[in-house]
Fold each of these.
Amino acid sequence: MAAATNERAEQRPHSVWLTGRPPLRRKAEQPAGLGLDKIVEATVRLLDAEGLAKFSMRRLAAELGVTAMSLYWYVDTKDDLLELAVDAVAGELALPDDADDDTADWRDQLRGLATTYRDVLLRHPWAPRLLGEVLNIGPHSMAFSSATLRVMARSGLGPDGTSGALASLFHFVYGFATIRSLHEARCRAAGLSIDDYFAHVIAAISDRPDFTETMELSARAGYAMPDASALDMLDRDFAFALDLQIAGIDALRAGRAD
């Protein structure tokens, strides 16, 4: 039995939030001028500028002007630091004011939560990948989860539908933001704005007979127009799709109430 218990313990997913202690080892020998907040801020800044693939503790140390070993007074591993960075950007999420719970429309609050989630993912395009790999149970992330649950509790949907409704909504937001971030990264790599890249693609396929029907249908739907702004189109589509998500939750809630 002891062997089986130890095996299960070794297989437990590692997380900085499951260590049972704050992610900081305070020792007399710790480097002067450093602090965990400063290290996490620099990590986010570096990830925003260079991306996840280029990030390393050595690169971070150079950014801070210290040795790589100095960072390990504060975190055990690079993965721990990345978890802290994910939760740091979760601190940028705009949460509803608790004082408005009695008067605010839950639909408007849910729309605001989804929109701020989209905006944070777009500002930090490295975050979506980490959100799929880490437990994401830091204090800022949990505050956001609590806010969404409080809003849904006032929707009247009921506890048996809350989890699925939130999964549908925020998985949609996650997917929309992730795909847009990847597309924008491709445009930057090509040295073009997203509007220029979109116009280039439309020009390349507009004269091809095999795309004639697609181009005609796309134009009717508001796509594939030479003077269209790709960013405006994406924002419009996100807003409409978000309305569909919330309308679906509202319709299900009303149906169950009837």
Amino acid sequence: MIQVDKYMKIVFATGNKNKLHEIRDIMAPLGAEVISMKEAGFEGDIEENGTTFEENAAIKAGAIADWLKNTSKEYNSEDIVVLADDSGLEIDYLNKEPGIQSARYMGHDTSYDIKNNSLLERLKGVPDEKRTARFVCAIAAVFPNGETKVVRETMEGRIGYEIAGENGFGYDPIFYLPKYGKTSAEISEEEKNAISHRGKALRAMQKILAAREA
């Protein structure tokens, strides 16, 4: 088991409850408490104006780290590391859309049922071999000394022909995994965490955290 005793708390720059649940499960081996930026007291918005997943992850982590340093007494210490991810769906046939705009595709407040149906409609008539896609996740860490590290991982698959499954969130119900013969919303949470872009990126980040403790 990887353990990082020095970092008693990890502040993760997300307000997405589903994502936070997934992150806590995957990061549990660290033995550190994982709290969201809102639980740390941050209520503002962060402008994600990067051109890559890596840039946006670093922007979010840096913004929260600066806020903690300048504003928060409780979480302004050497025992805190700030993590942030930027993730999304790349569809090759659509020139890698929605890409870094995945969360904002068709508007922040648009339901994923509408977004997923829109993407399926745009791919209507497109054969399997041209429906290749991947989930991408970049995770940035900002350490107490200001150093930033970023990792990137993917989960490859293709876009299915219909919405299927209720175990995932976001674009999971249209992301088909040929190995399983199911969408990523139809496999179990344990299976998804083992192969997902976010799971792989979080485990890569665990190694970075552990290396700093060695």
